[in-house]
Amino acid sequence: MAISNVVTLNEYRQESEQVIIDDISAQAFLFLQEQAQENKLSMRKLLMEHLLGLACVVKAVEGPEEARNWLNKISSEITRELEK
Question: Strand (E) positions, 42-82?
Fold first, then answer.
């Protein structure tokens, strides 16, 4: 019985963490969108540069293989979303 309570608590923590991540991500997107509009920049170009910048940071900190893993995961997620 105690094991199921631990699993439930763990699931709750993961769900709570995901809500926080989603909120931060939404705020970051809105900030980028606002900045793109204010500076008359293409949102598409800004997002692409932002993602590439993040990949460069991951490459510098975690190595090129991890950067490739991140980019592949992002690509897979986008493909899955487009197929819905």
Answer: none
Q: Is the pTM of this model over 0.85?
A: no
pLDDT tens for each residue of 37-75? 999 999 999 999 998 999 999 999 999 999 999 989 999
**CA distances (Å), origin 59, targets 18, 26, 66:** 25, 25, 7
Query: What is each CA distance from 67 to 21, 30, 40, 44, 74, in whole angstroms?
Result: 20, 25, 30, 21, 11
Domain ranges of the chain: 1-41, 42-84
CA distance 26 to 21: 9
Tokens of 53: 């910048």
End-to-end CA distance of the chain: 38
Residue 42, H or E segment: none
26/61 Cα distance (integer angstroms): 25
